[in-house]
Amino acid sequence: MAGLIIGTRGSPLALAQARELKERLAKADPALASDGAIELAIIKTSGDAGELPPIAEIGGKGLFVKEIEEALLEGRIDVAVHSIKDLPAALPEGLEICAVLAREDPRDVFFSPRAASLEALPPGAKIGTGSPRRQAQLLALRPDLKIVPLRGNVETRLRKIRDGAADATILALAGLKRLGLEREATAVLGTDVMLPAAGQGAIGVECRAGDARVKNLVAPVNDQASETCVKAERALLAVLEGSCRTPIAGLAEIEGGVLILRALVATLDGTRVYKVTMRGSLQDAVKIGAEAGAELRAQAGNIVFAA
To answer: I need a labelling partner for 72 at 20 to 30 A (CA). Which of 96, 119, 146, 201 fits?
Structure first.
């Protein structure tokens, strides 16, 4: 039996993330460096099933993790590796995030074969995205743009844009980097232009809450700063996330030993955007996230959260 079985989706990006975890574990523990010590188990999830409607219409983030978490709970795998931004705010009972790898660049990028920047797109241009967060922020910047649905893995979305499905799209820079495709980015978007999704760029390792053996094995690959930021962002989500159709963005960063969390919620059409910035000690990450969420709920009220 393998020393550790890692459950993952089968997409190129998911596999790249699983291999990154495998390499980090092998480097941290020589016992895991031998052949067969770490196994990858590919698990197909509901979110991988063919050409589906936008995620917000068919069940949200959980579509990408449900079957993997079932395998974890049943003991068929030892850990699950996820993009943190794909994880719902509440995990199933008995599971927890036991490590967060050092975070990659959390920013979004603009990709277009027809324009050098978001500003350079002609009036009425089409942008393909299935993300309510991206849609709201795009329309807040450029109300003239037309949003069209776009799904698929990174390579599929790049191909669809080249084939004319839309004039441009927005992608996570972290995903492009992990696939060796960062050269595809037409322009990197500052976080003041496009605030990322909570957890964007971070890889999370999920395990069974009572599995001391596995927790000890993965502990050396945990990045404390990334974990702290992710805790704040997920605490924000826990307060805000009533519907996967709600545009929510949040990014925590550490500057001079202080945690700074910027977050927003918006209407899908981008006509109303509510923002908050909160600062505090690293030890108060969860509290800061929860308070930011409460403040945004107070600001936006039924305008954003009526459902």
So the answer is: 201
Answer yes or no: pTM beyond 0.85.
yes
Residue 49 banded pLDDT, cuts 50, 70, 90:
low
Rounded to 5 degrees, φ, ψ at 96 are: -155, 160
* Cα–Cα distance, 276 to 203 (Å, whole number): 25
Check: CB of residue 170 under 8 Å from CB of residue 95: no
Going by C-beta distance under 8 Å and a sequence separation of 6 or more, which residues neighbour residue 105? 173, 174, 177, 201
Contacts of 100 (CB under 8 A, 6+ apart): 84, 202, 203, 204, 205, 222, 223, 226, 227, 230
Catalytic residues: 86
The type of residue at 181 is: L
Residue-wise pLDDT tens digits, 63-105: 678 899 999 999 999 999 999 998 999 999 999 999 999 999 9
Output 151-160 pairs: Cβ under 8 A, ≥24 positions apart: 151/51, 151/52, 151/54, 151/55, 153/11, 153/12, 153/13, 154/12, 154/13, 154/179, 154/181, 155/12, 155/179, 155/181, 157/128, 158/111, 158/184, 160/128
